[in-house]
Amino acid sequence: MKKILLFILVIVNSHSVFSQKIEKMNRVDVDGFYTNPIVSPNGKLVLLTGHHFKGVYVLNLTSNEITQISDKDGSGYGYSWDNNNEMVYFKQKEQKEYFLDSKVYSYSLTSRTTTLMPDIDINMLSSYHGKEKNATTQIVVYTNMTTLKIEAKDLISKRSWVITSEEGQYYNALLSPDGKKVAVHKGADIYVYEVNGNGKGQKIGTGLATSWSSDNQHIIGFLDTSEDGHNVTNSELYLFDTIALTSKKVSNTEVLLEMFPSFMGKNQVLFTDDKTGAIYTATLKF
Amino acid sequence: MAVLFTVNVQSQVIVIDPGHGYGATTSDNPDGRTATEIETALEVGLRTRTLIQNSCTWTVQMTRTTNLNSWISVTQRGQMANNWNADRLLSIHCNAGGGTGTETFYCTQDDTNTPPDVAFAQKIQVDMSANGSWNNRRCVEDNTFLAYHLGVLRYSSATGCLNEIGFVDSSDATKLTSSTWRDTFALSYFNSLKADLNLTCATTPAPGAFTLTTTPECNGTTSQIKLTWTASSNATSYDLYRNGTVYASGLTGTTYTNTAVTVGTAYTYSVKAKNAGTTQTTNSNGTLSVTALDCNPIPGAFTLTVTPECSGTSTRNRLTWTASANATSYDVYRNGALYASSVSGTTYTNTVVTAGTSYSYYVKAKNTTATQTTNSNGTQTVVAVNCSAPGTFTISATAECNGTTSRINLTWTASANATSYDIYRNGSLYASDVTGTQFLNTYVNVGTAYTYSMIAKNNIGTLANSNGTVSATAIMCAPGSFTLSAIPTCSGTSSAINLTWTASTNATSYDIYRNGNLYASDITGTSFLNTYLITAGSTYTYYVKAKNSAGTLNNSNGTLSVTATNCSGAKISENNEVKEIISISFYPNPTNGILNLEINNSDVRNIDYMILDMNGRLIKEATLDSERIIDMSQLPSASYFVRVVVDGQEFVKQIVKK
To answer: Is residue A84 part of a domain?
Structure first.
């Protein structure tokens, strides 16, 4: 009931509260707390997780049905879609295991079967989108757990190389759809590198980058803020231009904690409100 | 498809989160926390990490390792823990608001597996209370007490807790800032982690000796310091210290490139080899100091020289410049526009030029950035030279007079492309580097023949005139102008007219005309005392004609008229030197042929005489011998004038030849 009231409040005040660069915002009508959504390549399905990234769920945006495919701790971090919208890749561990002992699994939406993938490393999971037929190269990116540098590996040739040659502790590498660029995080900032390891990182802004646009130019992300550094008191969506090296805030609300946006087609995004765990879609005004 | 990674990390991953950090400066404090909290949390976190790394094989990471440039949002810190596969997340903070003691929070929001978080938090709280001698305030679920969820715990999937060590604004602060107590707090965390993970760390041999090498270098224009060290036996990782503090930790290789350096700044480095044991080994060659290189210096001053020249018969302008320090290449500008870019050497030859056309040049030294330096001596302008050999030409030599001056006028046709000529006279070089097409040779002797030839020159070569040697003889030129003066005077008691004139250039002798008639000819001097037939009171006119083989010229001041004075009363001044008056007599007169001359002064020698007919024509001219006899025997019988000049005095006597 509280969620319904909040939704009504958001819609009613959308013109007076929001001074933002998104429009046509709609809440996806599902119950429960969800976060870290990843929209499938065809825009019809969404990967979701819960508090503490526990569990993996698939949301059908057509029917608003949600299917749980994992209930393990940390299984909702770093999951991914295959390029054919048919397979989901995620990691999970048993309760007594350490996270580095996690194993990668695939889930088939068609057969509804979960299969262990022992050859896939958990650290490159987020950039793995299934084995590509007849491919001469297949690049994945990951954090080297010893050096905390971002590295790349060609799964075909087995060759690996360092992308972030500069000093620093890096995390959360996000590979572009064409596999040529990668957004990485160092401290509070986001940098974009050429995947081939040539050149230096170019800072595009501050926050967490969560999704590339299909044209490989823009990244959508968010930046959470806190009044005292303990709990999140606000969070807004940001659109980063990786060519102009600029960023702009695209949401501006007080009632929502917009987080984890994911591109859904060319101009649409899907994100979650971290206060309620509700899921929203909206259209970006470029 | 085998894509497994081989990474040298242990399964147990601890992420220590020292909480709030500063921005770029300590005044940039987004979370508004005290320096005591920010710096204590980091220091205790670093010491905890050191304890783990010295004794255990666990992997330990930190969300921040510095105080500055270390503000990170709470969601980002949770994401770090997730990305780095944290099994335990320990967030270290200090309390504020008045109070004393330690407290720990855990976040189990919608969590069905709460026991691990609760157990971890309680172990941290119990140990910190005991080891830190703190008041045990509480260990509770965050939202229960705080009415909100702690972000860093909420967004992490690790088993985690947040410990507030003590209060920064009470007497607790004394312990928070104490190095000894910080060690105690770190040891407390370390032991809590070991107990919670139910792990013990085995003793391993100490890392062996090794040496460190530091090398300042450039990577393009970026200054960096490369550190390499020999491998230390038993070491599993290395910590790099810069300026006395840990700069990079957990390095598994034996090299490190420090790119975060400032040009010209000196840094000290040392490396500690580590393994799972507690003993660390520092590089044996001590702390090394090295200064970061300037990899992008501004190009230094340099100067440009432009030389027009020929390459065979092709004209070109050759540019050379002194090397510019730090320059990597040069751009050449011609007539104000970029003409050649990124020239690597210090010369450039501009071959696309037109002879006779002016070109201006300057050069910019460049390095790999936009910084450029222009040559210090400004724009250099040159004219491209003509590089064709001299063409054929002919010469001619003509003797001529320029007024009274004799000269040889040497002229020639112009030789194409020639810049100058050399003139040879009588086979020897006479004048060099002559320009134009004429040379007037005035240094000649009249009547002398001269031969001439010439050579046309330019910077390509030389060519002799095509018509061979030519010859010319210097000619005599007419007498030059002169003036006459006629002064009445006395020659003893005889009236006389004294004629004097300026010398006439080129004249070989003079003729004197009195009253319009030739009176005396071939006078070689420039004076004449006319005593003959001068009658006092009579007026006489005179002009003089200068002569040579080229012609004659009258004195320029025309005919002079003068009246003879009476000299009968003339006397010699007492003051003047007494001069003996010369008197001459001729005898016999009339004569048959031999005419004797008697002079009262026996010292007179070499007396000249002339015999004139009654019309003034010269009949005979000779010098008297010592016998002073004039032979007129060969002359027809008639009356003659005999004129004798003795000591400047003229004596004329009419003689009758029988």
So the answer is: yes
Residue A81 counted as domain residue: yes
pLDDT tens-place string over residues B242-271: 988 888 888 989 999 999 999 999 999 999
Task: Tell me: pLDDT of B463 over 70.
Answer: yes
Report DSSP state, residue B115: H
User: Left (φ > 0), alpha (ψ -120 to 50) or beta: where does B647 sit?
Assistant: left
pLDDT digits (tens, 9 = 90+) for B116-172: 999 999 999 999 999 999 999 999 999 999 999 999 998 999 999 999 999 999 999
Task: Assess if residue A105 is contained within a domain.
Answer: yes
Q: Which domain holds residue A115?
A: 32-131
Q: Hey, what domains does chain B have and what are their CATH numbers?
A: 13-197 (3.40.630.40), 212-291 (2.60.40.10), 304-383 (2.60.40.10), 395-473 (2.60.40.10), 484-563 (2.60.40.10), 584-657 (2.60.40.10)
How far apart CA A126 and CA A223 sit, in angstroms, is 20
Asked whether residue A201 is assigned to any structural domain, the reply reads no
Taking an 8 Å cut-off on Cβ atoms, the answer to whether A100 and B11 are in contact is yes
Query: Which of chain B's residues have a Cβ under 8 Å away from the Cβ of A188?
Result: 71-73, 76
pTM value is 0.55
> Does the pLDDT at position A39 exceed 50?
yes
Among B10, B71, B113, the residue with its CB nearest the CB of A188 is B71
Q: What is the mean pLDDT of residues B583-603?
A: 82
CB atoms within 10 A of CB A254: 10
Position B279 scores a pLDDT of 65
In terms of CA atoms, which chain A residue is nearest residue B148? A231
The minimum CA-CA distance between B118 and chain A, rounded to whole Å, is 15
Rounded-to-integer distance, Cα A193 and Cα A199, Å: 7
Domains of chain A: total: 1
pLDDT of residue B8 exceeding 60: no
Contact list, A235 vs chain B (CB under 8 Å): 75
Give the integer Cα–Cα distance in Å for A242 and A180. Answer: 12
A107: domain CATH number is 2.120.10.30
A182 closest CA partner among A147, A151, A225: A151
Report whether A241 contacts A204 (CB < 8 A).
yes
Query: Can you tell me which residue has the tokens 């013109």?
Result: A15
Q: How far apart are CA B136 and CA B130, in angstroms?
A: 8
Q: Do A100 and B260 make contact, defined as CB atoms within 8 angstroms?
A: no
